[in-house]
Amino acid sequence: MTMKSDKPEPEERIDPYLWDGSGQPDSEVEKLEALLSPFRYDPSARAIPRVENPAARVRRVRLFPAFAYVAGVAAIVVALVVMFVRGRQTAPASGPGWVVSDVRGTLRLGKTTVSAGKLSSHLGVGQVLETGAQSQARLTAEQTGEIDVDPNTRLRLVAMGNDTKRIALDHGVIHAFIWSPPGQFVVDTPSGITVDLGCAYTLQVDDSGGGVVRTSMGWVGFKLKGHESFIPAGAVAAIKPNSGPGTPYFEDASAKFRSALASFDFEDNTPEQRARDLGTVLVEARNRDALTLWHLLSRTDTSQRVLVYTRLARFVPPPSGVTEEGILGLDSAMLDRWWNELGFDDIAVWRRWERAWGGTGGVK
Amino acid sequence: MVRLLSLYAPREIRAASADARLVEAACRGDQTAFGQLYEQYAAVVHGLLLTKVPREEADDLVQEVFLIAMRRIMALRDPNRFGAWLSAIARNLANDHYRRLRPTDSLTEDPPETAGQTAATRHSDTGAAILDVIRSLPDAYSETLILRFVEGMTGPEIAVRTGLTHGSVRVNLCRGMRMLRERLEAASANRSERESH
Fold first, then answer.
1. Residue after which a domain boundary falls, among B103, B132, B154
2. Which residue has the higher pLDDT, A47 or A169?
3. Which residues of B touch A1 (CB under 8 A)?
4. Is A302 at the interface with chain B, CB within 8 A?
5. Which domain holds residue B42?
6. Mean pLDDT on B157-169
């Protein structure tokens, strides 16, 4: 990809510094490098984080570098393994929807029965797909991603527009691997909605409507009315009908931490017990559990919030302009700025999605 | 013998050869290999995207490019062409994004040169304005300059990662730099003239 000829003309003898950075630095080139380097690719903000050199860690608290890398690669494993081992069966879709392929056993698709061996089928808007105890399938949409549907799962395609692809998962397990832009793939559950923010994740819903969301790459937003959780790679969050998403946590947190958090989130406890649960969570918290502590800021009352603030500030100091008073008052802009210091992804992605859906309370 | 000779090959040739091995491993399902390719090529993909799309969108599209690549890597016949192939995916995605951003009637707008000069006249000493001017250059020049100045890659690295020849990269850098200099000087002159009035 060269203009005119590839051959340099005689007057085009290139300055060594411009070519490979050797020789006497050219002041003009140096100035351009200095002015333009801030636009450089920042691997720390992406879904498959770079393993940083130790010196870089001094500047910023890294909550899950190695683990997220492994998790990201693990998600790649899932995709690659399935792609290479199973192969793919695709057929042209009739109208907007998902191609149903790789069927094992027998499943229900709308009013028809689909058995293993059939090349492919099509899940259209409004149709229900239901797998039995021995069946599973894969859904593929070229511009959106792939969803593996486990046995005993029932889902319905709600919408398949240019900007929103929406599925309702009544019960069962799906493994979503999504490559459409963040915010476009949405799954309704009885406990709230999950929003893909560039990732791979597993969503499990039991017969009661509760369950768990587990992210293996990128991150997922989960929301029920005003209650929201952000779940980055390597983290999980329990979900319950009416309560919505629980506080996200990393699965390698201590058993005491996880147990106390579950009790705090979902049990109908006395104030004293809640205080004890919170105390256990704060004591057991490690650096990377800043994820959990940040979420707890908006899930605690004022007297508890100051404790959470103090503990979180020890792990990740609030950035300039973020004050204790603002955080205790749940200033949303300050909370967002502090989140961005945690080293996951920019919360603006989520906020853009929220605005597109009509504000924080606009989603049911 | 071949192995011995390869030790004395130029560094970029050794890098290309190592990348080809990673590609072959990725095709066999080696997830770590794909992860390494991601790390090594993310910057060049980002640079190519940045020639057509805003920075914040370029960040998101990097992931999209790799997801597409991951799904289609088996279709890559020559592992030595991974860089060129990945660059093509990035360019296609950037062009597609650019088309969606700009409806067809935007073709009646000012030519890119004017748009670039206007941006530079407004704030010629800022990186954003200079980036706008670089974007207004022909694609071959803007891509190479962005990889050199934004992503901090050397000429040989650009050649290896994009699949271009050294000669092509050299020409693009020389001519692109010359054109960039002319446009920045013109913009600066315009600004001085306006300030004097």
1. B103
2. A169
3. 139-140, 143, 162, 164, 168, 172
4. no
5. 9-103
6. 91
